[in-house]
Design goal:
The chain is an alpha/beta fold and 205 residues long. 23% of the residues lie in helices and 28% in strands. It has a single domain, classed as Rossmann fold (3-Layer(aba) Sandwich). It has 5 helices and 10 strands. An 8-stranded mixed β-sheet has the order 3-2-1-4-6-10-9-8. It has a two-stranded parallel ribbon with strand order 5-7. The longest helix has 14 residues, at 76-89.
Length: 205
């Protein structure tokens, strides 16, 4: 696992030892960040990386110009390795780590930066098999809806066979990409008088 672009391009990440992780491939990560780039969601944005593991997504965002990232995971050993990666990348001033139950705290907005512009959400496959109404992931997405700025993006990575709703609160699915056995759904926070008309066209590659 490594950072693939930006100021820390090529930096290798310390992986959590002896733990079951689902590292995202360079190809998928590059495609995801290309989409964020087309939406102007890289430079000076405030990011949250949920179920972050090594911190690969948040560190990639910081390397590419994000202003700040909150990293959140429920495992103390995971957060310990994560902090080593943040230190190695020299992003201590631009980072905040939270060890907590993500289903309860969501993206945990910081007092300094408030709501987020981009939230990466990568729940365990078992948890995200069904993301329909009243499921754990659906309730989490509804919480994230309250923690993201209007126009902001939430990316939800699941197994390719997982069921995902088109909408959670004011978060509307505007794009869906599939790679191998995974897929990533892109949700944008809509205003109450707009439901995403014409937005998906901005994601044409």
């Amino acid at each position: 696992m490594r950072i693939i672009a930006g100021t820390k391009k090529g930096m290798k990440l310390f992986p959590p030892k002896g733990m079951d992780t689902r590292p995202i491939t360079d190809r998928v990560k590059e495609s995801l960040f290309s989409i964020l780039y087309t939406k102007g969601m890289l430079e000076d944005v405030v990011v949250a990386d949920l179920f972050c593991g090594t911190g690969s997504m948040g560190l990639e965002a910081l390397s590419r110009g994000a202003k700040f990232c909150t990293f959140i995971d429920g495992g103390r050993d995971v957060v310990r390795i994560l902090n080593q990666n943040i230190t190695k990348a020299q992003f201590l001033a631009e980072s905040r780590t939270v060890c907590a139950n993500i289903l309860k705290v969501g993206a945990a907005p910081s007092p300094e930066y408030g709501l987020y512009d981009v939230i990466f959400c990568d729940p365990p496959y078992k948890m995200s098999e069904n993301c329909g109404p009243d499921t754990q992931v659906a309730k989490l997405m509804e919480l994230l809806d309250l923690q993201i700025n209007e126009g902001g993006l939430v990316t939800l990575r699941t197994h390719i066979r997982s069921y995902i709703d088109d909408r959670y609160g004011e978060l509307e699915q505007i794009d869906l990409r599939e790679w191998g056995n995974m897929k990533i759904a892109f949700f944008q926070k809509q205003s109450r008088d707009s439901h995403g008309a014409g937005i998906a066209a901005d994601f044409e590659e």
